[in-house]
Amino acid sequence: MQEERAHWTSNVGFVLAATGSAIGLGNLWKFPFITWENNGGAFVLVYLLCIAGVGLPIMMAELLIGRKTQKSVVGALKDAVGPAWGYVGAWGVLCGFILLSYYTVIAGWSLYYFARTVGWMAGGLPAGTSLGDLFGAQSANAPLQLTLSLGFSLATVAIVYLGVQRGIERIARLFLPILFGILLLLLVSSFAMSGSGEAIGFIFRPSFSELTPESVLEALGHSFFTLSLGMGAMVTYGSYIARHQSIVKASAMIVLLDTLIALIATVIMFTVIFTAGMQDQVGETGTVGMLFIALPQLFFQEGVVPFGSLLAPLFYVLVALAALTSTISLLEVVTSYVIDEKGIGRHKATFLCGGAVFVFTIFAALSFGSTPGLSTIELFSGKAGWFNTADHFVSNWMLPTGGFAITLAAGWFMTRDATESELVDGTEPGWFRYNVWRIFIRYVAPAAVGAIIISVAFGRDFS
Ligand code: TRP
Question: What separation in Å is there between the alpha carbon of 85 and the centre of ligand 1?
């Protein structure tokens, strides 16, 4: 017999869980770095427009498809649109699977840096430590990488195993307030540093002469990643919403919180960098460099971060918590598909899916060492190893195509009645205009996402 579908116990619980999915390494690892690369200001403004004009309408579309059908992504798209749309759902499940396989590895690094920074709390950074070398050594250390990512995978599996209410929602309720607290503490302490004015100027003062068409597309691509859109994660979470919970309000809240956290994280990181006068070095170390090479060094550098040696471990707790609330959402996409479509119980399904994903996590974890094959496969030029291959494929191809399909589903294939009755149901806030949403989901969002796909086809790289 089919168990009754679980629902979030409250609106707050749901918003926190979905916000936990959205807030992740994208906010702490990708956004600050691409803001840096694109010279801040104007890029941030464009990003905010993308979030509001494309991200928010698609967020509503995904949640409404989930709530309407009460099914995970494959069944939801079949029910809401038509049988062939099951393939679009399956594309999303595959995307969740691949993304989770390497996301866990980065999450594992945060555990490593937590342990190291705790170790340096008392005596400071040992003389002669090169954090660039340390990063290289840890990422190439196979047993270490396997241990870290196995630990993180087990934590993820344990939470998803407990289910929607006792696992996912409870963890979100517990961890997100801690995450917000740590972030605020770091923000307040960054205001005490001399570089904070410069950092804020860099982030918020737009200079449009530096804006290129590529940076507009990069902002757009990132708005998908950071909001967990384009792969059915929000469809899945939406399927646990009870009828009386508002999709519009929740979407606005999730999008707002995710954006706020990304901006705060960027202010903190840039303040540290400007205070130390490290501007020149940051660009060279790439995306991972900012989080795992530049920052740990600066936390322990004399005169940069007040109480830096205390704040450093807290910062990596923040990264780990943000990552964990995202990995559970990724695993839930895959697991709920198996539960709903294959009729397997949650406990068994969680182990099955967690185990299958972990096989690929092994590939990702060994991507940086010298394991033959794993660190050298190169399906996309310049992207050696499973880790880079997967990141490239997900960010460039899977999320934009999945998101494009969602806009078509909600804007063109579902009837007006079907979407209107979900969004305008008496729970929506006064500012919401269904017709405006409809224009965005039918025209603006597909045109924008279509532009990403075309530019990727012509060789642009957004990973
Ligand atoms: N939003 C997450 C982040 O910013 C990454 C992500 C993309 C994700 N799609 C997802 C997380 C789906 C959970 C589910 O880090």
Answer: 22
Instruction: Count how many domains the chain has.
Output: 1
Residue 1 falls within a domain, yes or no? no
CATH assignment at residue 451: 1.20.1740
Atom of ligand 1 nearest to the CA of 322: 15
Instruction: Give the Å distance between the CA of 96 and the centre of ligand 1.
Output: 9
Measured at the CA of 443, the angle between CA 440 and CA 408, to 5 degrees, comes to 95
**In this structure, is residue 108 part of a structural domain?**
yes
Per-residue pLDDT tens over the stretch 68-121: 999 999 999 999 999 999 999 999 999 999 999 999 999 999 999 999 999 999
Ligand 1 centre to CA of 304 (Å) is 32
Residues 188-238 have pLDDT tens digits of: 988 988 899 999 999 999 888 878 888 899 999 999 899 999 999 999 999
Spatial CB neighbours of 354, under 8 Å, sequence gap ≥ 6: 153, 156, 157, 160, 331, 335
Range of the domain at 305: 11-457
Percent helix / strand / coil, the chain, rounded to 5 = 80, 0, 20
In the structure, which protein residues have their CB atom closer than 6 angstroms to any atom of ligand 1? 21-22, 24-27, 99, 225-226, 228, 231, 233, 326, 329-330
182 part of a folded domain: yes
124: phi > 0 → left, psi -120 to 50 → alpha, else beta; which? left
